[in-house]
Input
Amino acid sequence: MNRGAEPSVIDSPTRSAELLRRAWDLPVARAYAPLLSQTFTSICGPTSAANVLRSMGVPSRPNPLPGFGLRPMSVDQLAREAAAVVPAPWRVEVRRPRTVDELRAELRAANDPGRRYIANFTRRPLFGRGGGHHSPIGGYVEAEDLAFVLDVNGSYGPWLVGVERLFEAIHSVADWSTGRTRGLVRFERTPRPAGASPEAHLP
Output
């Protein structure tokens, strides 16, 4: 990257070796290595959930969710099913950032070991083609204002992109009948009450 340029200079997805090296050094990204790629039995939604579980230290099949692994899933459906398999004290919710700044705030939190995110986005604003997809967020490179997307499609692999371009891909209509947009599945580890016994819902 040109050190004298503004952070937003990287607008399209990049796989710069130097930036990827720095991104994999982020505290949460390290927990995802090695990344599991989707297969013919488990596509992007279930595979993303499996990677999140593994990053939490929970053993997981390629499809840890209750349903069939080849289903297209909305961000809301993925969140509901993921909530049934994550260990306590993690909780799951959908976030739909309404502005670039709201997305940036979530991305900053993605570097917190107590958070995990799966992004639901459309590939078209990013790559000029393609449709909806789910992949975990590995973290945020703040100096360059870049999101680290752990693309579970092995033909793409992990990449980084400017926050404004990622917002365009996320803040897109997923269901034209309702007008609902895509968004983020947010996993947050909450403090366990004193004296509570540990629980886990393992896949």
